[in-house]
Amino acid sequence: MMIEDLLLPESILPHLQSRRLGTIIHHYLETGSTNDAARQLAEQGAAEGTVVLAEEQTQGRGRLGRSWLSERGAGIYASILLRPVLKPRDAAVLALVAAVAANEAIERGCGLTADIKWPNDLLLSGRKCCGILSEMQAEGEVIRYVIVGIGINVNHSTFPEELGQRATSLRVEGKQFYSRVAMLCALLQRFELLYDDLQRGNRAAVLQLWVERSSFAFGKQVTVDLGSGKKIEGQTAGLSELGNLRVKLADGRVEEVMSGDIVAWR
Ligand code: BTN
Predict the structure, then answer these.
(1) Confidence band of 4 (pLDDT split at 50, 70, 90)
(2) β-pairing, 25-28 with 51-54?
(3) In the predicted structure, residue 10 carries a pLDDT above the cut 90
């Protein structure tokens, strides 16, 4: 780990062009999960835009109860605290927006074009390089806060065997080191713009960016694991206005998937 690429506030702030996201940074050399640290800060009243960063996570968490490999100094492990003025049912879109922001940051920063696998996995050469875990705390119809946790495999050179078939990094794909500081700044800047757009009511436009950047949006044959042992198979048919995946089944019915995992595709 090179000192100059540590994700320290003093390394990041001079390069940061966002106005709110990332202006308050909590940096840990090691923590359990940045999402958990961010939640604690949120409960203590931390401001919107507060970002928690770690060089290493010992309990990095993924979607659907999975873990997230968080090798020291190799990736970006970031959690962004948001206090959006949205209805809870609209908050799922935030994770899709984060995926678009990460996708654009990777393209601009590395010249690598990742695919977005619904809802918010970024793939390079069919393998995952970025994942997003968005967690919301609401009271009735009011969102108290949302933590958007983003993990990007930036400079990992190898992965443990069981992950090797499914995971990759920007370094493996681009065959060079990338600056995590530059990548994070680009991500926060882009995320802030899209987040502001969303809150101004431009949800359709923001979701359209997702559609344009994902080969999974239309016409992909997929198997979706809905949990509790239930799976569906069909062809993707775009997103609903809430960001749900529309899947056209063999009998012609269209099912809207709110939460699930695409486990096979072609
Ligand atoms: C997934 O694809 O399953 C989501 C992975 C999310 C990983 C990030 S790393 C930063 C933040 N802290 C966590 O514990 N998880 C998220």
Answers:
(1) low
(2) parallel
(3) yes
What are 151-200's pLDDT values in tens digits?
Answer: 999 999 999 988 878 999 999 999 999 999 999 999 999 999 999 999 99
Is 243 near ligand 1, meaning CB less than 6 Å away? no
Q: Which residue type does 18 have?
A: S
What would the pLDDT profile of 57-69 be if each residue is shown by its tens digit? 999 999 999 999 9
- Alpha-carbon gap, residue 100 to 130, rounded angstroms: 11
Q: Considering only CA atoms, which residue is closest to atom 9 of ligand 1?
A: 151
For the chain, list the strands marked E by DSSP. Answer: 25-28, 51-54, 76-82, 115-117, 121-124, 127-139, 142-152, 218-227, 230-239, 245-248, 254-257, 261-265
- 66 C-beta closer than 6 A to ligand 1: yes
33 Cβ contact partners less than 8 Å away, ≥ 6 residues apart = 57, 59, 60, 61, 149
Ligand 1 centroid–CA 77 distance in Å is 7
Ligand 1, residues 35, 72, 153: which to mutate, most atoms within 8 A of Cβ?
A: 35
**201, pLDDT greater than 90:** yes
* Site of tokens 């919107």: 48
pTM score, two decimals?
0.96
